[in-house]
Amino acid sequence: MARARGVERQPAGGVTLVAMVGLAIAFLLYIAVLYGLKSGGLLSEPNLLFATLIFYAGAGALYLGFGVTGAAVCVGFASLATWAGLAANTAAIALRWHDAGHPPFASVYEMLLSSVWALAALTLFAEKRFGVKVIGTVTMPVAILGLVLMQSLRTEVHPLAPLLQSNWLHIHVTLAILAYAACTLSFALAMMFLIQDRVKTETFLAATGVSTLAIYASILLACLEKWGGLSRAAWTPGWKAEIFLFQGIRLPVTVEELGGLMLLAVLAVATPLACYLLARGSDPLNFLKLAHRAAWVSILAQGLTLAVLLAQLLPGRNSAPGATPPTLAASPFMLTGLVCGLFISLLFLLLVWRRPGLERLLPSSDRLDRITYSTICVAFPLLTLTIATGAYWANLTWGSYWSWDPKEIWASITWLVYALYLHMRITNGWRGRRAAYFAIGGFAVVIFTFFGVSYLLHGLHAFS
């Protein structure tokens, strides 16, 4: 009878969601198997990565479903889907390692392949060890984003450059991947702490507005043409490379439909922030209601912008002999920004919709603060060893421990942010919100160090 009563208490929405996600996973896997059999590559790397994406996407949907419904059945099957995705991810890494003859650390694509694996593994560890069952609502979408971006990057297997033929590559990059995964975990925990510490929803609204506005404004400043088009580098499909007019000067190609739409998206994401600022002056209730409605419009505008980007770049329509307009492969940074902006906005929407339920599902704020600190205590030594091994390897290769390369500079900035976090916590007793803000800021620096530097600031680490 007790068991029957437990089943009755299980929210019906959770069981329905599990059934729907399970059917979707089964159908997509069936399609993947048919494609693999037709192409003769059932266990090929693309097929394994597609399976990984299916399982991680299913896990992400179920984690979010757990946050919405509170049904324990959702998180149970989310963990199961994450384990299945981790197994497929492991198989893809093993196959890549076998085909390349070296660990998958030699390019942004390969580092993402390994980083996604580390993040999924740490998600399962945190869920089991710390009991933070909703951690996957943040970490799994990040893993999914990584897998999606991998599809737009160069995937060919090539021998290691002489510069990289060293065991120090394996040590240095392994430490970096584990450190960055731990930083991602601390970010997710810090965000959950702020929710549980009763930070006002309006504060999250402001943070969402600032983040999305910064993303779209950066894209516009970097790519907007005077006549309203959006300029990106031309791309040669055969070589899978950008076209350069001169050294460091890319051949620009304009996508006319995106510039005006991007301007409208900027106005849409700026409107909730503007309403929030007006609410601080006068008539706060009405302006906050207007801000929440504007947030919905912002999400729709961001989704439309992303859809148009995909529609414009996926077909690869010709614009010049021997070249195509910028494809997703030539625009990973733009794609990353648009997807991240939409993801941040959707997380805010989930918070508005289900905040009381989320607070009941999360551990106490004190426990989340301690877990965040423990995670950074793991990440910081890994960051330190990453820089130390990189410096030693650089001295062996170039005869200098430090070359003031952009990646080195930003890695040191990342280290300093987390060092300051630990210093202020240990010596000044920083706890709570200030510590959480540092953890979130540190993760933003990590993202730029890992991905932004590789595409915006060229140097000795151009391959990574």
Indicate the percent of residues in helices. over 70%
Mean pLDDT over all positions:
78
Number of helices: 14
How would a textbook summarize the main sheet? 2 strands, antiparallel
Class per helix and strand makeup = mainly alpha
Determine Rg (CA atoms, Å): 23 Å
Shape: globular
Distance between the termini: 58 Å
In order across it, which strands form the biggest sheet?
Answer: 1-6
Low-confidence residue ranges: 1-8, 243-251, 315-326
Portion in beta strands: under 5%
Number of strands: 6
**Order of H and E elements:** HHHHHHHHEEEEEEHHHHHH
Q: What's the quick description here?
A:
The protein is mostly helical and 464 residues long.
Task: Give an account of the 3D structure.
With 464 residues, the chain is mainly alpha-helical. It has a domain at 206-356. 75% of the residues lie in helices and 4% in strands. It has helices spanning 2-9, 12-39, 45-69, 72-100, 108-130, 136-150, 167-196, 201-223, 256-279, 284-313, 332-361, 365-398, 406-428, 432-456, and strands at residues 230-233, 235-236, 241-242, 244-246, 249-250, 252-255. The strands form 3 sheets. It has a two-stranded antiparallel ribbon with strand order 1-6. The chain has a two-stranded antiparallel ribbon with strand order 2-3. Strand 2 (235-236) and strand 3 (241-242) form a beta hairpin. The longest helix is centred in the C-terminal third of the chain and has 34 residues, at 365-398. It is globular and about 65 Å long. The protein starts with a helix and ends in an 8-residue tail after the last helix. The model is unreliable at 1-8, 243-251 and 315-326 (pLDDT under 50).
